Amino acid sequence: MVNNEMTAENLRSAFAGESQAYQRYQVWSNKAEEEGFPGVGLLFKAVAFAEQIHAGNHFGVLENVKGDFLVAAGAGFGIGETAENLKDAIAGEKHEIEQMYPAFSQVAKNQKESEAIKSFHYALEAEKAHAELFSRAKEALDSGQDFEVDSFQVCKDCGYTVKEEAPDKCPVCGKEAESFRKFA
Ligand SMILES: [Fe+2]
Ligand SMILES: [Fe+2]
Predict the structure, then answer these.
(1) Distance from Cα 51 to the centre of ligand 1, integer Å
(2) Would you state the pLDDT for residue 28?
(3) What's the 20 CA to ligand 1 centre distance in angstroms?
């Protein structure tokens, strides 16, 4: 639950941003597959699921705030070549890591909004993993290759995303390996 209007507004904005990231990454996943980069396509699919987790977490914190709201959220548009989409994805993740979530977290801390603090923390930490994976995928593409991968694993609680095997324990939320969903 949430008690303060400013944190509620930040949760709604983050919900909208994450929801749109989910859709955008699905489109870019299809585009990567069309271009013959199934590894990048799989990465976009796995990360899209993680953004859905974040949106759901933020939405859940807002359980006690019912009604219709106009929601403002930064959101990139456009379908480019996959290398360009990865560049835009990295920029979007960086915005969340360096600007949006630190600011939202600070307000939530000032307002002692414990559920929002956790939800923003989970998202911020997962976005760091996403930025890293997108950067590695971009490097592969820049040298003319697909991102070589068998599977990605996404924590269903916090959206933490890892290449190949799931860790014994999620480094962000502490859940066991069974809490990870596999994309292969
Ligand atoms: Fe992300
Ligand atoms: Fe987790």
Answers:
(1) 6
(2) 98
(3) 11
Q: How far is the CA of 181 from the centre of ligand 1 (A)?
A: 16
Q: How high is the pLDDT of residue 41?
A: 98
Query: Contact, 117 vs 108, CB < 8 A?
Result: yes
Ligand whose nearest atom lies closest to the CA of 91: 1
* pLDDT tens by residue, 127-175: 999 999 999 999 999 999 999 999 999 999 999 999 999 999 999 999 9
User: Distance from the CA of 36 to the center of ligand 2, in angstroms?
Assistant: 31
Rounded to 10°, the helix 114-142/82-95 angle is 150
Q: 30: which residues sit within 8 A by CB, 6+ positions away? A: 41
Q: Tens digits of per-residue pLDDT, 10-32?
A: 999 999 999 999 999 999 999 99
For the chain, give the longest Cα–Cα distance: 50
Cβ(138)–Cβ(83) below 8 Å: yes
Cα angle, residue 155 at apex, residues 15 and 95 outer, rounded to 5° = 45
- The predicted structure's pLDDT at residue 74: 87
Domains of the chain as residue ranges with CATH:
5-183 (1.20.1260.10)
